[in-house]
């Protein structure tokens, strides 16, 4: 019986030679035609290629290439976005009719565990890396990616972390050992608790911070790991730790806000980004049925125009705010014309910002305000607002609500929506439509947690399904 790593084992352990070429295509192959992982990672060069392959995997449409950005937005679309497309998986999420056969829920789970297993393979192969600095760097990168994937999984497939609670609610299975054979993939494994998953994420990121160089080109650096850990602590409502890390990144990473928000998305590896998914016109998450530009854009022949921006959200931007004007919020002219679209994703081959400095300013602002340092919070919020031409807030206007609204205005369509609502315990207001009266969906509702994929339950009897599925 194959467990959660069934396909991961086929693709990574039995077919690792594919990842050594940094290929990001997902292939189903015959295991008997493949190379065993213990043989494949037998040199420093091959381990280095496997590390490159880890980053390439993040560009999968099942991860940051599409779903880890889009799915958290679709889970809470009310007064924000609408899904106009025909893909059943996304329509289910937006309409909250998801079931255990949802293909996005299956694909995210499967591909995230593939990335985790590849990180485990790299870590276990480190003894063949003779160059000390490279050995530390590769371990740090593997730990960073493993932590990132577990953080994404626990936020999507488990109930929200409860500050001060035991957090014994089911999380996701943790595996720190690489799967190399079909037999190794046959071990069933139960779900670890939410507390255990967060502890593992924090352990890996803490190690990564010490192992990674301060500057690592377009790959994860020590400051990238600090920024992700700040995000993790914020999700846990550990505001003091989150604020301290965000402050460190702002002051010491060497990063700076780009002149405009638009330039973060139209330029590659801007001064603002701490992590970008590297794409180009030949290698990207997709140009027909997947990819962020594919689903969000409606520009001539480019894009499907599946995701529209609702006027209720667009109206939150004031007239002088560039984030609400033509470059970043436009009326579609291609597929499904006439609706508002985000200008953040407008070409198939553009890089995808995953962590950027503006988020660190917003974290520092929120944590400063919660620590009764309103002056510091106001300065950070206005730094973000004035970059885009929005009117600076006054001290009298500053509140936790205005800080959280600014976070939504700045980080819109970047994969933060449902996670922020959950951590702030904010219920979802559904306005009246036709004969349907207005209603409120509790943010603790079971339907806002993705199902454990049906195929995983069938092959791993130790797994327990989430309530409601």
Automatic annotation (TrEMBL):
Domain SusD-like N-terminal: 29-234
One cellular component term from this protein's GO annotations in UniProt: cell outer membrane
InterPro entries: SusD-like_N, SusD_RagB_dom, TPR-like_helical_dom_sf
Pfam families the UniProt entry points to: SusD-like_3, SusD_RagB
SUPFAM superfamilies: TPR-like
Family assignment from sequence similarity: Belongs to the SusD family.
Family annotation (PROSITE patterns): PROKAR_LIPOPROTEIN
Name of the molecule in the record: Tetratricopeptide (TPR) repeat protein
Start and end residues of each RagB/SusD domain: 344-469
Top-level taxon: Bacteria
Signal peptide: 1-22
Swiss-Prot/TrEMBL keywords: Cell outer membrane, Membrane, Signal
UniProt-annotated location(s): Cell outer membrane
